[in-house]
């Protein structure tokens, strides 16, 4: 299938498909008459790329992860480290947001209780 067909059928932005092509991860993709044609294994890899983007990986991180993935089992430890690092970073962000919510709730409580004076 062409880049346009892959984009429409699997709801993958063309920008992501172009990134994929530029990284040389296309596997069995053949360039025919100036356009790329994707097969099932490409769609699986593209699904992984979309997932990595969705969980917050940068373009550079996605590229590194995908190149490691192509190495197979020997890169599992490094891929797991990348996933764990992203997980811990996400947890830190969640905890920071929880603290912000606590502060917002405190300020709301003070207003509702009538204890927060207006600034003059």
Q: Any overview of this molecule?
A:
With 120 residues, this protein is mainly α. The chain folds into 2 domains: 1-70, Multidrug-efflux Transporter Regulator, Chain: A, Domain 2, CATH 1.10.1660.10; 76-115. It is 68% helix and 5% strand. It contains 5 helices and 2 strands, in the order ααββααα. The protein has a two-stranded antiparallel sheet with strand order 1-2. A hairpin with a 2-residue loop joins strand 1 (30-32) and strand 2. Helix 3 packs across helix 4 (59-70) and helix 4 (59-70) runs antiparallel to helix 5 (76-113). The chain is elongated and about 70 Å long.
| CATH domain topology of the largest domain | Multidrug-efflux Transporter Regulator, Chain: A, Domain 2
Gap from first CA to last CA? 66 Å
Order of strands in the sheet with most strands: 1-2
Residue-averaged pLDDT: 85
Structural shape: elongated
Low-confidence runs: none
% residues in beta strands: 5-15%
**Elements, N to C (H/E):** HHEEHHH
Helical/strand content category? mainly alpha
Q: Which CATH architecture of the largest domain is right?
A: Orthogonal Bundle
Give the strand tally: 2
Q: Helix tally? A: 5
The percent of residues in helical segments reads 55-70%
CATH class of the largest domain: Mainly Alpha
Number of domains: 2
- What does the main sheet amount to? 2 strands, antiparallel
């Amino acid at each position: 299938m062409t880049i346009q067909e892959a984009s429409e059928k699997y709801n993958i932005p063309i920008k992501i498909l172009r990134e994929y092509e530029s990284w040389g991860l296309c596997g069995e993709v053949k360039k025919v008459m100036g356009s790329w044609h994707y097969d099932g294994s490409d769609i699986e890899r593209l699904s992984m790329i979309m997932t990595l983007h969705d969980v917050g990986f940068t373009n550079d991180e996605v590229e590194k992860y995908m190149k490691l993935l192509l190495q197979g089992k020997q890169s599992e430890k490094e891929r797991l480290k990348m996933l764990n690092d992203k997980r811990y970073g996400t947890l830190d962000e969640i905890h920071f947001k929880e603290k912000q919510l606590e502060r917002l709730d405190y300020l709301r409580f003070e207003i509702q209780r009538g204890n927060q004076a207006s600034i003059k």
